Amino acid sequence: GAEGSTLMSYFSKSQIQALKPKITFSTLRDLQCPVLQSNDLQGKPEESCSTEELFEWLGAVLNQVSLDNKSSSFLSTYCCPEPNTVVEKAFLCTITGFIIPEKIIQLLDQLCCYFSEPKLAYWLTLTVHGFADSPVSWRESEHGFHKGGENLYNFVIFRNLDYWLQMAVGAHDDCPP
């Protein structure tokens, strides 16, 4: 009743809009991607890359770091791990905002449906970041900001619906069991 309308007048419309997740799409062309085998987490020389190599590569891609290892670059001389393949088009969708776990499960389901169509992708990823200065982390511990405030997990889903789950938290945080 009256309490609700008072709250509505307290928060301007623009503030409420700011709470809605912001979605951006981009297309990455001729992207070097690591070759992965769903049953090989450690990777094998000349056959597939490891989970750690993928995680590092993904960080570079999400931060739009060049992968061409130019010595003139002051930012990074990082290059895509071997073996890799060039993907003509990769789609990157970023959703920023407060997203409840049910929505993440819904997103995962939708991503898995992608493989039921005749697509060329062998795998895809879904990365969920907590805010660096979030007060909470997993389990009963407070989230320790300390240096970087790492607080994320990443699903790698393969065409056969096998998946990897990678988690990263700061040194003082608990990880789920």
TrEMBL record:
<dbReference type="GO" id="GO:0030681">
    <property type="term" value="C:multimeric ribonuclease P complex"/>
</dbReference>
<dbReference type="Pfam" id="PF08584">
    <property type="entry name" value="Ribonuc_P_40"/>
</dbReference>
<dbReference type="GO" id="GO:0000172">
    <property type="term" value="C:ribonuclease MRP complex"/>
</dbReference>
<dbReference type="GO" id="GO:0004526">
    <property type="term" value="F:ribonuclease P activity"/>
</dbReference>
<dbReference type="InterPro" id="IPR013893">
    <property type="entry name" value="RNase_P_Rpp40"/>
</dbReference>
<dbReference type="GO" id="GO:0000447">
    <property type="term" value="P:endonucleolytic cleavage in ITS1 to separate SSU-rRNA from 5.8S rRNA and LSU-rRNA from tricistronic rRNA transcript (SSU-rRNA, 5.8S rRNA, LSU-rRNA)"/>
</dbReference>
<protein>
    <submittedName>
        <fullName>RPP40 protein</fullName>
    </submittedName>
</protein>
<dbReference type="GO" id="GO:0000171">
    <property type="term" value="F:ribonuclease MRP activity"/>
</dbReference>
<dbReference type="GO" id="GO:0001682">
    <property type="term" value="P:tRNA 5'-leader removal"/>
</dbReference>
